[in-house]
Amino acid sequence: MNAEFIEALEEIEKSKGISKETILDALEAALISSYKKNFGTSQNVEVIINRENGEIKVFAKKTVVEEVSNPSLEISLEDSRKVDDKYELGDTVILEVTPKNFGRIAAQTAKQVVIQRIKDAEREVIYNEFVNRENEIITGMVQRISKNNVYIDLGKTEGILPPTEQIEGEVYNQGDRLKLYVLEVKKTSKGPQIILSRSHPGLIKRLFELEVPEIQEGIVEIYAISREAGSRTKIAVYSKDPNVEPVGACVGLKGSRVKAIVDELNGEKIDIVVWSKDIKEFIANSLSPSSVTKVEVDEKNKSALVVVPDYQLSLAIGKEGQNARLAAKLTNWKIDIKSESQYQELAQDGDLES
Fold first, then answer.
1. Global pTM?
2. Positive or negative, the Cα torsion across 145, 149, 150, 155?
3. In angstroms, rounded to a whole number, what is the distance separating the alpha carbons of residues 273 and 285?
4. What's the rounded Cα separation, in Å, for the pair 199 and 225?
5. Which end of the chain is more exposed for a tag (fewer CB within 10 A), N or C?
6. Most confident listed range (2-16, 28-42, 201-215)
7. Exposed e or buried b for every residue in 128-139, given b needs 16+ CB within 10 A?
8. Domain annotation for the chain: domains and CATH numbers
9. Per residue, what are the HEC states of 97-122?
């Protein structure tokens, strides 16, 4: 250890942003462990590195006692006064105990500490960068697939797309470029773990923000999203500007904007509907592409009875009830759908309030 080592630490400080003092503090702590391991575990020692020339010294701390029972931790009053005649019982004497071959141990320890500190600092930089991108969209490349987990190359690090966050039926191949939603960033002993998602509704929101300038500018806002990933999504939007039609803005010229999103999601169907303060109107809109003739609402139970033309009943309910299910999620209301003829029968039977 010498002045060159101190200069090297200063260079690391500039290039990696790791404080020289942080490394030296960590090295001093590591050298105490190394000393105890090699020269006696019971001693109370302190290691000091000269910040100017890199010189390392080891000092033992011993308490002045009348009768020494533990030589590693105690010194007699007589011996302490050979060091300095001012010592009294109970004082702490600090003695240099630097071993001759300690420089070799120090050099090995220093290398390990510096490497580890650089790794820790780089991990911290990556963590701080990505933790600020939680709930954002990111582009990455499929690196490898292991145990159904898809590992994504994000440049400085890799993220993980677990099976629960994958789109059902979507096939991932090495080298594929994907847009992903940053679901969560965790600190682990092996560095930051970045959990990504392709199935989260937030991905839809961010894709629309990317494709629709009116959303970026805050003119058009997304009120709610309900999604069954890989199959269908409903998104409710509204405009703050009466001159801007929200659905048209999201669809784009000849459907260009929504097509870009559908292509990114490998053909997932997207229904864009207008949100309204009038819950009846919003519920009717939410069942798009079906038309609605009547909506009766029960405010207390947040439930609605929706009447549709007979020929549109299956369209309103959707395949395996999907359209109705997504509309209920979107509005956060229970929705019961009846055809006009079913509604008339109920009315005739007196099962409906007039």
1. 0.73
2. negative
3. 6
4. 12
5. C
6. 201-215
7. eebeeeeeebbe
8. 3-130 (3.30.1480.10), 135-197 (2.40.50.140), 200-275 (3.30.300.20), 279-354 (3.30.300.20)
9. CCCCCHHHHHHHHHHHHHHHHHHHHH
* Residues 6 or more apart in contact with residue 173 via CB below 8 angstroms: 142
pLDDT, tens digit, for every residue of 90-113? Answer: 999 998 888 888 878 888 888 888
Q: Are 38 and 105 in contact (CB under 8 A)?
A: yes
Q: Average pLDDT over the chain, rounded to whole?
A: 90
CA 203/CA 198 separation, integer angstroms: 7
- 152: β partners: 142, 159
Quickly state the pLDDT bin for 1 (edges 50, 70, 90). Answer: low
Are 92 and 62 contacting, i.e. CB atoms less than 8 angstroms apart?
yes
Under the banding of pLDDT at 50, 70 and 90, the label for residue 354 is very low
Residue with tokens 């229904």: 271
